[in-house]
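Problem: given the chain below (67 residues), write out its structure.
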Amino acid sequence: MNIDISTIFQIAGVGIIVAMIHTVLKQMGKEDMAQWVTLIGFVVVLFMVVRMLNDLFQEIKTIFLFQ
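Solution.
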């Protein structure tokens, strides 16, 4: 398994962008939209982490099953 550092930077980038959009929308008085942006950002990052966990479990499976 090769953990790519670019994935970590992608997650950090999504977090920074979502935080900026959330702040701008909240200052404009659109708290509902700001919460939706945060939720969507969380789901995107969650899918990225799930994909990384899937790779990890596949690697563990190949190690212990000698495939």
